[in-house]
Design goal:
It is built from three helices and nine strands; from the N terminus they run ββββββαββαβα. A five-stranded antiparallel β-sheet has the order 7-8-1-4-9. It has a four-stranded antiparallel β-sheet with strand order 3-2-5-6. Helix content is 10%, strand content 42%. With 172 residues, the chain is mainly β. This is Calcium-dependent lipid-binding domain-containing protein. It comes from Melia azedarach.
């Protein structure tokens, strides 16, 4: 009897968006308010929005949590979670400006070595792909979680933030 089947598992990926450091090098931009849009690169519905760092600084602190449901069947060598950092437009009708982006391979977060609890730091890159600061996150993975638990937590979405989960708003 052959019991080997291709296992199709889903994992929960909890991201604690902690802070960033030295985001903008321009002297004009010492007082900026920022927020982050986080999403799975293969799922447009997974876009989640952090709260705005109200103090406005080159070293913002968000302390926001997001939960993503990651299907192992959709993972490939280039699947990532993307963090886009935006500067809030200060003038009326001024569009928010993307000041940097971080792309992290899901494979490194879910199946990477070590514990399922990790703290990590990544270079934030500007449009020219030049390092523009550091993004600090915490990651917890729950591999192979039961389908019923995930469907109750996430419904048909691939991602949810804690404020939305607890009754607030936060998705796009």
């Amino acid at each position: 009897m052959n019991t080997s089947k291709s296992l199709h598992t889903k994992s929960i990926l909890e991201i604690n968006l902690i802070s960033a450091q030295q985001l903008v090098s321009s002297k004009k931009s010492y007082r900026i308010q920022t927020y982050v849009v986080a999403y799975l690169d293969y799922d447009e519905k997974s876009k989640l929005l952090s709260r705005i760092d109200e103090l406005g600084s080159r070293n913002p602190t968000w302390n926001d949590k997001f939960i993503f449901c990651v299907d192992s069947a959709l993972l490939n060598a280039t699947s990532c979670i993307v963090f886009e950092i935006y500067k809030v437009g200060r003038k009326l009708f001024q569009k928010d400006k993307r000041i940097g982006v971080v792309r992290v391979l899901l494979e490194d977060l879910i199946h990477g070595g070590g514990s399922n609890h990790k703290f990590m730091a990544f270079h934030v890159r500007n449009r020219s792909d030049i390092p523009q600061g550091i993004l600090n996150i915490g990651v917890v993975t729950f591999n192979g979680i039961c389908e019923q638990v995930m469907s109750r937590l996430l419904g048909s979405n691939s991602g949810i933030d804690y404020r939305n989960f607890l009754g607030g708003s936060g998705g796009l």
